[in-house]
Amino acid sequence: MSRKLPNHAFAALDAARRESGADRAFSLDRRRLIEVEVARVRPNPHQPRTVFRDEDIDALAASIARVGLQEPILIRDVPGERDVWELVAGERRLRAHERLGRSHIEAILTDGDAREIALVENLQRVDLSPFELAAAIGALAQDNDYSHEDLAVICGRHRSEITRLIGLSRLPASLREDYDARGGDISVSVLYLLAETPDDALRQVLWDKAKAGATLRHLRAIRDAARAEGPEAEGPPPAAPATRAITRALRGFDRTLAQARPEDLTAAQREHLQRLHERISALLAAARIS
């Protein structure tokens, strides 16, 4: 069950809105402010944040216990179910209430795009990791056919930054896991440099140097020197430009396929993959004949 909040609850909400700019992002209506049972709020399946540190939840719970919840969570109705809601934004606040053993939480009912709101809401508060942000932006682009310009407006970032963030998805899963295990102590500028380095061996050298404390300037110098040296004289002859392009494309495609799930493919993607399959089969057949 839900119940409307008393009028004095709106004063804190209005102050929080003015501070965070939430009105501009979510077009909130104070008549939608309600109080709901914590147990009846389902997690957001599109939550861009994947890491929730216990110490952060403990600190937030202590703050809420002392001064109360300063800004409600965002929820939306679950179609076909009465008095059940899906969390749109505010999972840390919801977890803090659970940790405090509280049965109800203040919430704002919204009908906006859950994935988009969750991303913007997280950006306004605690920074997402670069990889969480890249994954969330990539999902938004795929689900809504957004251009990089559209995403820049939604996220309040420059278009070039959006392009570079999406490029982080090219980095191997092992590197991303290593980054998370270290607590995100490598700058995003270094991650951009790694994503723009197609050579796997060179990228690993740069990553090891970065973990050892090398500066971005030093890493760039290492990369530029490696590029200037080119292939060793005793090594195999350099591949033709088209062959090199195919090699780079296959590496990226292989990494993407390793993360893909059949149930996530759209009809357009399945058709595109089928066309690629036919073209690859024809290319391989021609190569066998020659």
From TrEMBL:
GO cellular component: chromosome
InterPro entries: Chromosome_partition/occlusion (IPR050336), HTH_ParB/Spo0J (IPR041468), ParB/RepB/Spo0J (IPR004437), ParB/Sulfiredoxin_sf (IPR036086), ParB_N (IPR003115)
Similarity comment: family membership: Belongs to the ParB family.
Species the sequence originates in: Pararhodospirillum oryzae
Membrane-spanning ranges: none
UniProt-listed Pfam families: HTH_ParB (PF17762), ParB_N (PF02195)
Domain of life: Bacteria
GO biological process: chromosome segregation; positive regulation of sporulation resulting in formation of a cellular spore
Protein name as catalogued: ParB-like N-terminal domain-containing protein
UniProt entry keywords in alphabetical sequence: Chromosome partition
PANTHER family the UniProt entry points to: CHROMOSOME-PARTITIONING PROTEIN PARB-RELATED
SUPFAM superfamilies assigned to the protein according to its UniProt record, in alphabetical order: KorB DNA-binding domain-like (SSF109709), ParB/Sulfiredoxin (SSF110849)
Classification lineage: Bacteria, Pseudomonadati, Pseudomonadota, Alphaproteobacteria, Rhodospirillales
Single GO MF annotation: DNA binding
Domain ParB-like N-terminal per the UniProt entry, residue ranges: 34-123
